[in-house]
């Protein structure tokens, strides 16, 4: 008898369609559940207890961890775990827990005010990157090349940001034009692709349509992936790496990663890897 899995997401994209299409091959029935419709709170809420597992792919940087926490309270297996999702949703927390575990991350400063911002400019050398603590897909990430424009850039954070949107990181710009996305399922690195910025956009992000190519499973990359999984627990992650003269560092870990670009570049059957992992988790 097929096991029922709720694919909890704010919308259906290529990845969700492929997961739904592939699921029956692994004895699973996957149903899209809009992450705005669960109304969780009571541990016996039927909206989650009717499922054998939740596959959480909410792109919201506030909903995912909350849904995972309440679903776990109701005794429903969740991918990824609430602890992992909460860490991935917050760039400052993620970098802190990874650094504590010995996983290399970029130098950074947490900026909660203009005074913090001014101090970060004194501490770090230009060019610098200003990015929101909460958010993804390369949005609101700003490259600051010149000191005389830095304060004007911060005006937009201070005047237009609301509450937690004003929490930012400042970090060195790790140039070179490429980044590596590692798609992890369970403990395994399923595929890795290098993304290169195109045109006039300096950002390297698959969501921005950057060029990509498959890369070998470098031993240093595998060691970093092992460290990430060892700290966050096995799950489904997009681990984004930047190369530096001292080796790779973890820029971000995505708890609901897009994987179309990695699948296209590498030929890896990522939907089947995810379905197989879910099947193993609930049987």
What's a quick, concise take on this entry?
The chain is built from ten helices and 13 strands. The protein is of the alpha+beta class and 283 residues long.
What report would you give on this structure?
- By secondary structure, the chain is an alpha+beta fold.
- Helix content is 35%, strand content 27%.
- It has helices spanning 14-22, 46-49, 63-73, 82-89, 91-100, 114-123, 147-160, 219-232, 260-266, 270-282, and strands at 3-9, 28-34, 53-56, 78-79, 109-111, 128-132, 142-144, 168-172, 178-186, 188-196, 211-214, 235-244, 247-254.
- The chain has a five-stranded antiparallel sheet with strand order 11-10-9-12-13, with helices on both faces. It has a four-stranded parallel sheet with strand order 2-1-3-4, with helices on both faces. The chain has a four-stranded antiparallel sheet with strand order 5-8-6-7, with helices on one face.
- A hairpin with a 2-residue loop joins strand 12 (235-244) and strand 13 (247-254).
- The radius of gyration is 19 Å and the shape is globular.
- The termini are close together.
- The mean pLDDT is 90.
Total strand segments? 13
- Give the SSE string: EHEHEHEHHEHEEHEEEEHEEHH
Portion in beta strands: 25-35%
Continuous helix count: 10
- How far apart, in Å, are the first and last alpha carbons? 11 Å
Helix content: 25-40%
Structural class: alpha+beta
Query: Uncertain runs with pLDDT below 50, 5 residues or more?
Result: none
Radius of gyration: 19 Å
The major β-sheet equals: 5 strands, antiparallel
Across the major sheet, the strand order is 11-10-9-12-13
């Amino acid at each position: 008898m097929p096991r029922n899995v709720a694919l909890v997401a704010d919308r259906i994209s290529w990845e969700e369609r492929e997961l739904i299409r592939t699921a029956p091959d692994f004895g699973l029935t996957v149903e899209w559940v809009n992450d705005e419709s669960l109304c969780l709170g009571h541990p016996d809420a039927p909206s989650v207890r009717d499922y054998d597992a939740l596959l959480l792919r909410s792109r919201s940087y506030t909903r995912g961890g909350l849904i995972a926490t309440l679903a776990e309270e109701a005794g429903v297996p969740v991918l990824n775990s609430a602890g992992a999702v909460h860490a991935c949703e917050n760039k400052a927390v993620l970098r802190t827990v990874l650094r504590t575990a010995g996983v290399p991350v970029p130098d950074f400063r947490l900026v909660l005010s203009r005074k913090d911002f001014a101090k970060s400019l004194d501490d770090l050398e230009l060019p610098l990157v200003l990015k929101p603590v909460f958010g993804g897909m390369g949005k609101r990430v700003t490259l600051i090349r010149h000191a005389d424009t830095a304060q004007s850039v911060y005006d937009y954070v201070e005047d237009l940001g609301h509450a937690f949107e004003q929490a930012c990181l400042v970090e060195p710009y790790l140039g070179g034009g490429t980044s590596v996305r590692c798609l992890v399922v369970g403990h395994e690195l399923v595929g890795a692709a290098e993304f290169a910025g195109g045109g006039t956009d300096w950002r390297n992000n698959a969501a921005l349509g950057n060029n990509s190519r498959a890369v070998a499973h470098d031993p240093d990359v595998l060691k970093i992936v092992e460290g990430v999984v060892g700290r966050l627990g096995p799950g489904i992650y997009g681990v984004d790496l930047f190369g530096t003269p001292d080796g790779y560092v973890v820029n971000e870990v995505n708890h609901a990663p897009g994987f179309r670009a990695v699948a296209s570049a590498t030929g890896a059957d990522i939907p089947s890897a995810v379905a197989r992992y879910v099947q193993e988790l609930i049987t």
